[in-house]
Amino acid sequence: METLNIKATLRSETGKRATKQVRYEGKVPCVLYGEKEQVHFSVYEQDFKNLVYTDRAYQVLLDIEGKEYKAIVQALQFHPVSDLIEHADFLTLTTGRAIKIDIPVKLLGKAPGELEGGKVRHKLRKLKVKALPEFLPDNIEVNLESMDLGDSIKVGDLSIPNLEILNSASNPIVTIATPRGLDLGEEPETEEGEEGEEGEEGEEGAEGEKPSGEAKEGETPKSEGGEAKPTEGGEEKSKKGK
User: Whole-angstrom Cα distance, residue 133 to residue 99?
Assistant: First the structure.
């Protein structure tokens, strides 16, 4: 992990009025933990640019009025509207003592699923890890070159020597999502077409012919195995003819 040098100024007062004055001067009120006593100091807001707004994690060499401390940023507070840093907590690095820190995730390569129309969804941009200071990486690299449509890489899929990842193993880091409307394959339509044709032929036959058991005009329906008998109207007509 690379180191950034930052110069700071001690704060003799820590009340609300003093903190407000520090921010008015374009500085960020800070606290350093890990020493026997907390150290209160301030840093110009612009000096956080390369430390915070980056895809890498850094160690910090704090120069507080001539006294140096090796540390990391442990927590940041941002203004809800302006998004400016309002407060920063630092933690002293001590040899042989493991620390917890958020490490950025860096995606490498091009996923085959992306070339097929899939979308890369970067779910976790930072991972919380625990390690000794000498084993802390600048970032955690995740390779996408073996990911097809629908694939995902989860926290549990990573294995980094001398580093314990504290996020849940089931949490996805990155996925290749299939967009709506993207066809993954088409089913053959021959069977459906044949069934449709047969159905149409059957309907035509039903419309063009009458069932064998249906009687013609002037006849009663045939009984099973017998001939059709004339209707009553037919008998009266034959008698008048005689």
Answer: 7
